[in-house]
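Hi there. Long-time user, first ticket. I'm pasting a complex I've been working with (about 475 residues overall). I'd like to know whether the download I got is complete or cut off, because the file seemed smaller than I expected. Thanks.
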Amino acid sequence: MSEQVKKPIKITETILRDAHQSLIATRMPTDFMLPIVDKMDKVGYHSVECWGGATFDASLRFLKEDPWDRLRKLRDGFKNTKLQMLFRGQNILGYRPYADDVVEYFVQKSISNGIDIIRIFDCLNDLRNLQAAVDATNKFKAQEGRGHAQVALSYTLGDAYTLEYWADMAKKIEEMGADSICIKDMAGLLVPYKATELITAMKSETKLPIQLHTHYTSGVASMTYLKAVEAGVDVIDTAISPFAMGTSQPATEVMVETFKGTPYDTGLDQNLLAEIADYFRPYRDECLANGLLNPKVMGVDIKTLLYQVPGGMLSNMVSQLKEQNAEDKYYDVLKEIPQVRKDLGEPPLVTPSSQIVGTQAVFNVLMGERYKMATKETKAVLRGEYGQTVKPMSQEVIDKVIPGEERITCRYADLLDNELDKLEGEMKEWKQQDEDVLSYALFPQVATEFFKYRQAQQEKVDMTQADTKNGAYPV
Ligand SMILES: [Mn+2]
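Hi, the file is complete. Here it is re-exported in full:
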């Protein structure tokens, strides 16, 4: 790039979503976020990621907060900055596929409560599972003039995932009506020189802006950003330094400094960023002291590159093995994971496919025979309910696990009846706002517990008598 041509790199700040999801199990409460919003709003970020992913679940389950209320409060505070959320395609923010009416209503309510950019991904990269959410966003945008559909590709490695595959996906995403593309590298697998190749290949097939999202887990993330920016990436995801690195994103201040005085200069003010970091630093210390932040997740975990398994999946696996007193089988399971992944059509490993593959690998090892026992989710994947995989699934495994069963080749949601009315009927005694039916749709039990808690608070019930067993107490 000649020195005259300026291309300021845009920054999405993740402190209010992925950074605390990745480092402190999504436990940052709204009350702690609000006092710094005004300052963050002055920075000039491309966007602030603040909602979706696990924030919704954690708010209801552990923080006893209404996630919709959080969103509205953040929207009130951020007058100039776009707010961004993460959305699991047809699974919304939950763990099962929903009918299109729920997907559309959730998108509509997300935008009307304050979200600008919806980042939509599917764990199999089956674009059919993203279409309903993209269409809903575009419909709202046409009516209200607000809303941006970003389609995220779950980045992974494997025979099927060639540069041609990624470039072709970029083209298809543009054709499906998305406003931008994200490469979502949840495990930090994208290494710097591969990023050059990847961005170059995708840019050759699409004019859409490309955003790169990665994690520091494997230690290469800031170098990867540098090479991706040089290759033409438009936006990068970073976290303010006290909650950066480790399993989180590269530090915002470091990336800003890296590009200072170059054609990619972000133009962000380091003094302002330093004040924001000052706000979050004591909270980091507090989280270290109370154990919410485990120093283990702050280092470089090179196993991620060796086994291509996201950090969260490894910790799940370890706890499953512990429960079975089979921690000595750790390396056997690690070796089994690529085999199960191959049997299931070599999907990316991201929620929920990461849990499905990981749990099945644990079963295969503990039972001493592959697929002697298959989980409900493994069966659903084999039936095609989660969508189409890039590679065919193993016929041998299909015959063993779901013998004689019919497999689905259409978009699974096409087989689902609308379900909003039914959900509304189940929860109407708790309903205080339209959005409550969506909280209930995603987490029926957890949301109901929350509704009870909310009502008790409103009626000033003595919460020392609360149901502590189910976590229904003030925090
Ligand atoms: Mn992430």
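A couple of notes from our side: Strands lie at 10-13, 47-52, 83-87, 117-121, 148-154, 180-185, 210-214, 235-238. The chain is about 45% helix and 10% strand.
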